[in-house]
Amino acid sequence: MPCCGMQCCLFRRRRRPALCPETTSSSDSASDSAEDVYHGKPEPASGKKQRRRQIHRILDREGVEFQSKGIFHVLQTRRTCAVFLLDFFHTVIHLPFPGLFAVTLTVYFACFAFFALFWIWFTDICSIGLDTYRDAFYLSVETQMTIGYGVPDPNFGECWEAAILIVVQTVVGLMLDATVIGVVFQKLANANARANTMIFSDTALLEVENSCTYLRFRVADMSFRPLSQATMQVYCVQHHRDTSQPRGIRVELAAMQLEEPDTDIHNGIIFLGLPAMVSHKIDYSSPLAPDVPSTVTGSPTPAEVKTYLGQSPYLEVLVLLSGTEESTGAVVEARHSYTLEDIFWNRTYGTCVSINGQGSMLKAVMAQHHAHRQLQLLCAPKEKICGAEDLEHGVYQILAKAMRIRRDTYEFNVFDGHGDQGKKMSHFAKQALSKSLFSNNDLHTEPVAAIQAAFRDTQEKIEKEHRHQAELSGTTAITAYQHRNHLVVANVGDSRAVLGRCSTPARQTVSAVDLSSDQKPARPDERQRILAAGGTVDQMAIPVVQRGGVRWIRAGPERVMDKQGMGGLAMSRSLGDLRLHPYVISQPEVVERKLDSRDKVLVLASDGVWDHVSSQEAVDIAGKFDDPKAAAREITGLAGIEWRLIRHCDGLAFAVQKTIFDGSDIGVLLVYWGVILTNIRDTVYCILYTYENQIQPVERDGMIHTALVELSCQELHATDGRLQRRVRCQMT
Question: PPM-type phosphatase domain: which residues (predicted)?
Answer without folding.
Answer: 392-673
